[in-house]
Here is the input.
Amino acid sequence: MSVKTPSRLEKVLADGYFAVTTECGPPRGSDLGEITRKAEYVKDHVDAVNVTDNQTSVTRLCSLACCIHLKQMGLEPVLQMVTRDRNRIALQSDILGAAGFDIHNILCLSGDHQSFGDSAQGQNVHDLDSMQLLQTVRRMRDEGTFLGGDTINRPPEMFTGAAANPFADPFEIRVPRLAKKVAAGAEFIQTQCIYNLDKFEEWMKGIRDRGLHEQVAILAGLTPFKSAGMARFMKNKVPGMDVPDDVVKRMADQPKEKQPEEGIKICIESMQRLKEVEGVSGFHIMAIEWEQKVPELVEGAGLHPRPGA
Amino acid sequence: MIVAEQKPIQEIIEEIRGDHSVLILGCNECVTVCEAGGKKEVAVLASALRMHFMQQGEQKQIEERTLERQCDQEYLEELRDDIDRYDSVLSLACGAGIQFTAEKYHATPVYPGVNTKFIGVTEERGYWTERCQACGQCVLAQTGGICPVSRCAKRLFNGPCGGSTQGKCEINPELDCAWQLIIDRLKSLNQLEAYEVLAPIKDWSTDRDGGPRNVVREDVES
Here is the structure.
């Protein structure tokens, strides 16, 4: 498989390895030290690190600045970009800003609604949606033009990704929806956290039936539970999340002090099972404020050392 | 229709506090249908205000009138002979009617008695919901007759987002997910293949983003 960008993530996938990505949430302040600490935990165990873009609509230090910081530390950043907060001028401008610092990966998202965050009275933009942002990035890269038609001097070279939630409703359009993202230009997909492996495998079968796994690299999303309380919260409170009862029970059956260990174990077992699923090209580990556990998860799943390390 | 809702009475009282003679001006169109500013609501509001100011020991002249439309020159003209009798007008029309009344009568303050909410429908008496945001370029032919601009909280053209759960929107479990409705509708029309057509990037210049809009029709101009 030939590569189209200088992205390390793209190269790992093209060389036929399972890719491993993780994510870091920027701080609610201007202390880049927090990002430095998170990056130190994960740098030898992943191929690339996503930086979230004001996730859950809570105002934070911007994704682009954190990506530049990670790049300068020698890590490979994935710029997450939501269409909630910027119009097409600002989106294209920030893409160029990232390209100026040789950031070679982007994840195109619509973003959580602002009512979940600290600015519920603010406007949302959604000039483009996530699929249209994918098209925009691909156009800027492949045709070297802005949406307005003018030529870009030194176009961005970005491996272009999107998110997929195999568990959201309606289930029947989840595969067609992925097909749309591929048609819009997605080259890699990071999925919502997977706890219902049977349902994920059913989705993957639908992906394979349409040959989509040969057109896009699917990175299975995972988040380890720290506690039974977290499992219940994810099950009951997070929209679009599918946590089966037996997983919650498995966490709850452990004494409190053993629950973090059990969460890690479930996560590693999931990765081991998913490695066998045809069409899964890697893993996206979202260890929310638990980044120090990423090395243990990657090693436990037999994904260490990373290629080229 | 345009759906409006009466402002809290305390806010209305503040608006007209300094005025001695006030005309409460209803409109016989949309605000009558949504029971916010028709003849009946004018009467109820006038009584409430008279009672309030009487209890406060304030002398105020509060009169009632309802025009056929406040968004039309000819009906607004009906006020011409009487307007100077009032210190202010409290209009219960939509935002368009309130402004058109104010434009017509420069020397008289015109205050809003309602908050204009949206273009919508009466689902049942006492329950109105939004259907249109007047984006200026209708896409309903591509979306099974259900509008993603007005009914999706993120106005996604290629939805649904990952927050759609059991047919409901992530921001409110009472709210239908527009894209679930679109998909259900495409299915019943036997047009589900239309879902996979990528919606092009929208030209928002026909929306408010292009500046205040107008429609010119030379064929009907007088």
